[in-house]
Specification:
Layout: H1 3-7, E1 11-13, H2 21-26, E2 31-34, H3 50-62, E3 65-69, H4 75-85, E4 88-90, H5 98-107, E5 115-119, H6 122-131, E6 135-139, H7 148-166
Parallel strand pairs: 1-6, 2-3, 2-5, 3-4, 5-6
């Protein structure tokens, strides 16, 4: 498999709250591995948007288990957000290492085929999930603020996104 194919998300969607929990359940998914910064909350923030809270509530109601898997090292912040969402968490996770995602799947008591990765970064979230054969969702970043090391990767991501658009793949309003 070409590297480009390993980087391409299964689905591109505007925001995490545009992913239908019902549709995930119907596809046999039972667990979600969620990136934190710029996926669930704005970068380096704790405020959860009402749309995220409502979406997480709908996920829990259906029985979808959630794990926040983030490279952010501030465990107290990650723990507080995870508790509000009703999720377990892995802070300082070291994505895109496969072992990290395997641990998240184990914590969720699921198999990779029953889990999906949701994140805003191709090289951290999507690449890792694709290597385990998981369904992957690329969302637009919630803010334009980023960790300094992420900024350079965003330039490469822009080229990938242009290529996917030329092939007819772009962000959907909903899934």
């Amino acid at each position: 498999m070409r590297l480009g194919a390993k980087l391409e998300p299964t689905v591109m969607v505007e925001a995490v709250w545009n992913i239908s929990p019902q549709r995930l359940w119907e596809r046999g998914l039972r667990a979600l591995i969620l990136d934190l910064d710029n996926t669930v909350v704005d970068w380096n923030r704790e405020y959860l948007r009402p749309e995220v809270l409502a979406w997480a509530r709908a996920c829990r109601k259906l029985g979808l288990a959630m794990c926040i898997c983030t490279n952010a090292r501030c465990k107290p912040r990650v723990r507080r957000i995870a508790e509000i969402l009703g999720a377990c968490y892995l802070a300082g996770a070291g994505k895109p290492r496969i072992g990290t995602l395997k641990r998240a799947v184990w914590l969720l008591r699921a198999s990779p085929q029953q889990a999906a990765v949701v994140g805003d970064q191709v090289f951290m979230d999507i690449w890792g999930g694709n290597r385990l054969g998981m369904m992957t969702f690329l969302v637009r970043p919630l803010s334009n603020r980023d960790f300094f090391a992420t900024r350079a990767l965003r330039q490469v991501e822009k080229r990938l996104l242009r290529g996917w658009r030329q092939k007819g793949k772009d962000y959907q309003v909903e899934f």
